[in-house]
Design goal:
This protein is mainly β. 2% of the residues lie in helices and 49% in strands. The strands form 9 sheets. Strands 4, 5, 6, 7 and 8 form a 5-stranded antiparallel sheet that branches.
């Protein structure tokens, strides 16, 4: 709402323009209002402490701008002035890390691209780099053949995340999936030739699934679109792609989260796999395809459970008892290639290893063994689901890490208008 209570400021996405249009409209009216500015984020109005006018505050190409504005005339009066650079926004969603008050205070999140994927041993000792330094990513997945690391890196100037491939040995990278929108959470096919990923773009109301081959071969048929879809795994035989229909519980606690499978061999039919009153997500197949490990909050917090899979010619379903694996909360889980050990990121930031023994349809999980800690700042490098990965023999891990340099911070400016004028 704008001063006086009759008018309000809002933004609308313009797909043809590729950015947002900010408008002022009147409450109770039917007109869309007057366009006042184009932006890459939401737009906020604040009055001036030093004049009768005010400012529109917004982001464009990663720069936080304040543009003098005549509220009565509904028009800008001069060119925008830069307040800060490299402030993150999130494309056509309009969200952005800044806030401004009516009393001359302005706050913003400074953005620092200083995360990197590294190889570590079971004690957390650094072995080598798995990606270039000074990227911004915290979600990485190794290809089954061990050659590539797929990661979603954030571009602060465009407000998008893009999927990059990094050579698992040299760390050299190339951009694979890019464009307007959010590309995240890449999942490998078992032959290491394709990636399925979360795709948020202007064509869909909710994030859905994208599919891309490494050699550029076009897909013969699209993946189904059932609403919110976040991919989590691809079965060892290549037949099923797993996804859940919600994001993290802290973000979408008002929505259910169930686990589904897409049958890639049967006209890409969607199969409901886990559907309970609880929040279930991040499901992954065991290396032999006979078990499903997943997160569920049925105990009151997210823990890892395992359940056997029953496969038919036209179906896939979980069967039998659920077995608890983790103890004090979990966020991300990975298997060793022989299926005898499972690793997960605990709520305390530590990576744990759990030995598994299978017999007569039952699984016995050993006591979780703490291995090493992933730095908290690395886990929060961008607004994304954090993910590490492990080598086939379980002796090496690829994790997000922070390189040396400036720390990210929330910056608060007092009387920012005077600072900008100088």
């Amino acid at each position: 709402m704008l001063p006086g209570g009759r008018n309000f400021l809002y933004t609308i996405d313009d797909p043809q323009l590729g950015s947002l249009r900010a408008r002022i409209a009147t409450t109770g009216g039917n007109e869309p209002g007057v366009e006042v500015v184009q932006a890459d984020s939401r737009v906020q109005y604040t009055g001036s402490l030093h004049s009768d006018g005010g400012y529109l505050v917004y982001l464009r190409a990663g720069t936080l701008l304040a543009q003098p504005f005549d509220l009565v005339g509904r028009r800008v009066t001069s060119e925008p002035r830069a307040v800060a650079r490299r402030v993150p926004s999130f494309n056509f969603y309009g969200s952005a890390d800044f806030s401004v008050s009516e009393r001359g205070m302005l706050a913003y999140q400074s953005y620092v691209t200083r995360s990197q994927f590294i190889w570590v041993d079971r004690t957390g000792k650094r072995l080598s780099a798995a990606s270039p330094a000074e990227i911004s990513a915290n979600h990485g997945r190794l290809s089954p053949d061990g050659r590539w690391l797929a990661a979603a890196a954030f571009d602060v100037e465009r407000g998008v995340s893009e999927i990059w491939l990094y050579d698992a040995v040299s760390g050299a990278g190339r951009k694979l999936v890019f464009g307007p929108g959010i590309m995240n959470m890449p999942v490998w096919s078992p032959d290491s030739r394709r990636l399925v990923y979360l795709l948020g773009d202007r064509e869909h109301s909710w994030p859905t699934l994208g599919l891309r081959s490494l050699d550029g071969t076009p897909e013969k048929e699209p993946l189904p679109d059932t609403g919110f879809m976040a991919p989590t795994d691809w079965s060892p035989d290549g037949r099923f792609v797993l996804f859940n229909n919600s994001a993290l519980p802290a973000i979408t606690s008002a929505f259910p989260s169930d686990v589904f499978a897409i049958d890639m061999a049967r006209n890409r039919k969607v199969i409901s796999l886990l559907k309970t009153p609880f929040f279930e997500y991040q499901a992954v197949f065991s290396p032999d395809g006979k078990w499903l490990a997943f997160l569920s909050n049925e105990s009151g917090k997210a823990e890892i459970y395992m359940q056997a899979l029953d496969r038919g010619d036209d179906s896939l379903r979980v069967t039998g008892e659920r077995f608890l694996v983790s103890r004090q909360g979990a966020q991300c889980l990975r298997w060793r290639k022989d299926g005898r050990e499972l690793y997960y990121l605990g709520s305390d930031g530590q990576v744990y290893a759990v030995t598994l023994a299978f017999r007569s349809g039952e699984v016995r999980a050993g006591e979780p063994e703490p291995l090493f800690t992933i730095d908290a700042e690395a886990r929060a490098a961008i607004h994304s689901v954090v993910a590490f990965d492990v080598s086939a023999d379980g002796n090496r891990f690829v994790i997000p890490s922070m390189t040396s340099g400036e720390s990210s911070a929330i910056v608060v400016l007092q009387d920012w208008e005077s600072l900008v004028a100088k």
